[in-house]
């Protein structure tokens, strides 16, 4: 009758060991989905059941008691690289290793599938690009390649090669350097076969052009201010549009500035390229190009852009008043950002021959070039001009070539690779 005097167990006191219970693990799943584990969820399935679990996860079949797993989320039913994968926090469910195994297998297969597709696409694009480059330089390639058919390796062959290189716009200085290196290699390796001489010429030319090969570094400063110039008709504005697309493919946020206020419809042309690439364009109708450049640098910084590309008016090196305007634009850009412009690119026409050297010399003296974009290598260009640039001919310096263009499509502007260019040029 005195049972009400008996001390009650308070919630704060621990229960006896024989009455203690283990709380069920938390099986919360991302993307706002949750489920409860069945009674036997803690039991790990046998190893031979892993393939069955993976097939069920990929097909969308529910993972029930036969696997000891909760029902899979709908996101796993149709796995795709573009669809987010259901992720389970392993720290919250230490007693469900089978679920982690299935999740890992699913993710690995999706990643492998995506990598295979990417590699196939890259290989296909690479093959197409090399074919276009070889076709664009076919005139020189056929001229040089025909010299190695049914001939002996002697001085006559070297003289014909020397003439062919000069005719391909390589120039005297570059041709002398190439032929000297080729003779030395043939003598060193004791080459007696004409085809082996052609391969040696490819190697020598690739080594000669290697000084022009340089990757375009995007991430070292933000925003990266790129000033782009060139003569009228070189394809400057078109190259900017293609370049904006290429940089976006690398994940960069791009802003364009229509600083070419002299040429009719130049602003509209750049705006159209901006619409194609879904890129904003800073423009003023008939405004001062230096003011456009100044505003674009500030806009790029305010909007968190990775790259700001500033188009400038096309001009000839002999147009001194326009060259002075180009110097002014560079000074104004430096006022907006003391470290800018970070890149000054010159767009040159691959069909211009030795005139490219005079353009490089004049623009480099005016604004200090950091790189080149060579366009229109898609039919009549001889291609040897880059050998002259690499040789520093006519008082120029070997300015790096960032990109070369071989067509009108977006993907026809690609980074310059010395070995690929040499292989296409020799044939």
Summarize the structure.
The chain is α/β, with parallel strands linked by helices. The chain contains 13 helices and ten strands.
Which short descriptors sum up this protein?
disordered N terminus, 427 residues, alpha/beta, elongated, Rossmann fold, 13 helices
Task: Summarize the helices and strands and which ones pair or pack.
Blueprint: E1 28-29, E2 33-34, H1 50-59, H2 97-136, H3 138-145, H4 155-167, H5 171-189, H6 194-209, E3 224-230, H7 236-249, E4 254-259, H8 266-277, E5 280-282, H9 289-302, E6 307-312, H10 320-336, E7 343-349, H11 355-367, E8 371-375, H12 385-390, E9 401-405, E10 413-415, H13 418-426
Parallel strand pairs: 3-6, 3-7, 4-5, 4-6, 7-8, 8-9
Antiparallel strand pairs: 1-2, 9-10
Helix pairs in contact: 1-2, 2-13, 4-5, 5-6, 6-13, 7-8, 9-10
Structural write-up:
Helices cover 45% and strands 11% of the residues. With 427 residues, the protein is of the alpha/beta class. Among the domains are: 39 residues, no CATH class; 215 residues, P-loop containing nucleotide triphosphate hydrolases (Rossmann fold), CATH 3.40.50. Helix 11 links the parallel strand 7 and strand 8. The radius of gyration is 32 Å and the shape is elongated. The N and C termini lie far apart (110 Å). The N terminus is likely disordered.
Major sheet attributes: 8 strands, mixed
For the termini, the CA-CA separation is 110 Å
Number of strands: 10
CATH fold descriptor of the domain at 212-426: Rossmann fold
- Based on secondary structure, the structural category is alpha/beta
What Rg, in angstroms, do the CA atoms define?
A: 32 Å
Side-by-side strand order of the widest sheet: 5-4-6-3-7-8-9-10
Sequence stretches where pLDDT stays below 50 over 5 or more residues? 1-59, 61-96
Please name the fourth-level CATH homologous superfamily of the domain at 212-426.
Answer: P-loop containing nucleotide triphosphate hydrolases
- From the coordinates shown, what is the CATH architecture of the domain at 212-426? 3-Layer(aba) Sandwich
- CATH C-level label of the domain at 212-426: Alpha Beta
Q: Approximately how much helix is present in the residues? A: 40-55%
Mean pLDDT rating: 76
The number of helical segments is 13
Q: What is the N-to-C succession of helices and strands?
A: EEHHHHHHEHEHEHEHEHEHEEH
Which word captures the global form? elongated
Query: What portion of residues belong to β-strands?
Result: 5-15%
